[in-house]
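Much of what follows relies on a compact textual record of a protein's fold. A complete example follows; check for yourself that the lines match position by position.
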Amino acid sequence: MKDKIAVRMALKSTFKKKVGAVITKGSKILGVGCNSVGKGQNRIKTTHWEGSIHAEIAAILDSLRRHPVDDLKGTTITV
């Protein structure tokens, strides 16, 4: 189940290399994310780096928007 959710999140990415992540605690989903351009990072001019936020970081940030930081103890992240 976690793998399917991570794959579904990866499909939302606009990058060539699509990555998704899901954070769970037991059977409860705490947060999800995919690699994406971060605010302010799109101003970085380079031909080698698109300025992305990793899917894992996006999932952590999503979790923290929804839950207190203590709820993340003992969680699992699936990428």
